[in-house]
User: What shape does this take?
Amino acid sequence: MPRGAVAEPFEDCFKVNESSGCWEWQKYLTGCGYGKRGHAGKVYLAHRFSWLKYKGPIPSGLHVLHRCDNPCCVNPDHLFLGTHQDNMKDKVSKNRQQHLVGSLNGRAKLTVEQVLAIRADKRLLREVAKDFGIGVSRVHEIRVRKTWKHL
Assistant: This one.
């Protein structure tokens, strides 16, 4: 948003899903599906902004969690406060703890075969990095098993 521009009213940025009651954010979404909202020169996750607008301050160290398990929902009645530990327990209870490793992860840039080749390659880190189109630090992390630990 250009400097000095006035943000759209919050209520114009979501649509109510009649079946779930979720207020689904219709503007910018993060890669994880959470809404983002600019206000007074700051950027907020939209569900946190909703909490601030309708429920008040968020105490230090607390997160705003979703009862509905819908990250784009900004309905304050679907939100609750909790610690990081509460957030992790909630994730497990809703079976969202799946951790895709290696090439199963959609963001993986390498295959299993390439990782094994990097580990076997005795050349300098920078030479290997150049050949595989990755950074030197990534080659090091693979070799010391900081990443791709499962292999």
